[in-house]
Amino acid sequence: MSIDGSRRAFIGASAGALAGLLIAPGVRLVELASARPDGESAPSSVRWGMLIDTTRCADGCDDCVKACDSENALGSSIESRQRPQWIRKIDIKDVRTGRQHSLPMMCQHCANPPCVDVCPTGASFKRADGIVLVDRHSCIGCRYCMMACPYKARSFVHEVLVDQNSEVPRGKGCVEGCTLCVHRVDKGQAPACADACSKNSRGAILFGNLNDPDSEISRRIRTVATTQVRADLRLDPGVRYQGL
Fold first, then answer.
1. Domain 3-242, what fold?
2. Which residues on neighbouring strands pair with residue 92, listed in sequence order?
3. How far is residue 51's CA from residue 210's CA, in Å, rounded to a whole number?
4. Domains of the chain: which residue ranges?
5. pLDDT, tens digit (0-9, with 9 covering 90-100), for 115-155
């Protein structure tokens, strides 16, 4: 096929993908994905987020990573060599003071997510409650969002997946990342990582509504110094860190 022919084929396929988003008059897949299981839209009055206390996050503890892997069936691929990881533990060091921290890093669920800005099909989107997601039905695997994310928080699924969690649909050829366990949040539960951290008595991860001034997370943010990673980018992440 000639270069021009290949280009026409790509444009045609892209147009078909965009057209496929419209599945009924006035209804698009991203709108369906932004709704909760009960059919109600995610409330704009809520903004879900996390506060991670790095002083309580122990070096070598990976309970949050294991909980995420188990909850979202991330270890179920045929080959584990390229297994996606939605949350990872990283170690950082202040070169000026020598101070070190161990902390979990995941999708920061930005108010101004660059992954959404660069997505050509609308597969990357932000719900009204601040949770950033990927609609795998309209993801074409271009990986622009992976390049745009300053937190390296997205993964590409290279392999056929087996033994999936039916509440967490995934697929080969799609990009994915932390969903804040949206399937749990919509049922009134905390994300698996926060739940696991509270059960091991460390309590380093606090989940809650950033828009509610009376929520525990809002009260903590008002009373302690917190940091948004790469605040200079003005993305307004929904994940805040204490102790950095």
1. Alpha-Beta Plaits (3.30.70)
2. 101
3. 10
4. 3-242
5. 999 999 999 999 999 999 999 999 999 999 999 999 999 99
